[in-house]
């Protein structure tokens, strides 16, 4: 009888903690519009970086569509599911690769430069002025960028 009780308690303990890993994180739905000087920004990458390194916080990211609308996905979550509730510093980037210089590089790959289409401050994870809070429930977080922040 004691052995059955101990076995049951052990199984209950294991079952309780199985869902607590990253795959079991509760994420909140987050979407919004990215605009630059009032105009929607297409094909930008939006990244929410936790301001505090406290579990279970994790990075979440999304890409804007033609209308500037993004939907976040957590790193270990389902697509467009959202982010863990909490405070985040937000970066927004949009860049395109420039043509590689012509020439024979043998086995070496030429360095490719990029053209950035948004002010540098918004792609800086330490200094981005965008600090947002994800609340429990559905979140609409619009990101209004300025050419001269």
Structure overview:
The protein has one domain: Immunoglobulin-like (Sandwich), CATH 2.60.40. Strand 1 (30-36) and strand 2 form a beta hairpin. It has one helix at residues 2-18, and strands at residues 30-36, 39-40, 45-50, 60-63, 69-71, 73-74, 86-93, 95-97, 114-116, 131-134, 139-140, 143-145. Strands 1, 2, 5, 11 and 12 form a five-stranded mixed sheet that branches. With 149 residues, it is mostly beta strands.
Structural class category:
mainly beta
Q: Quick one: overall form? A: globular
Total helical elements? 1
Helix content: 10-25%
Spell out the CATH superfamily: Immunoglobulins
Low-confidence stretches: 1-22
As for the number of domains, it is 1
What is the H/E string? HEEEEEEEEEEEE
Amino- and carboxy-terminal Cα gap: 70 Å
Describe the secondary-structure layout.
Blueprint: H1 2-18, E1 30-36, E2 39-40, E3 45-50, E4 60-63, E5 69-71, E6 73-74, E7 86-93, E8 95-97, E9 114-116, E10 131-134, E11 139-140, E12 143-145
Parallel strand pairs: 1-11, 1-12
Antiparallel strand pairs: 1-2, 1-5, 3-4, 3-7, 4-6, 7-10, 8-9
Provide keyphrases for this structure.
149 residues, five-stranded antiparallel β-sheet, 1 helix, globular
Task: Offer a quick outline of the entry.
11% of the residues lie in helices and 32% in strands.
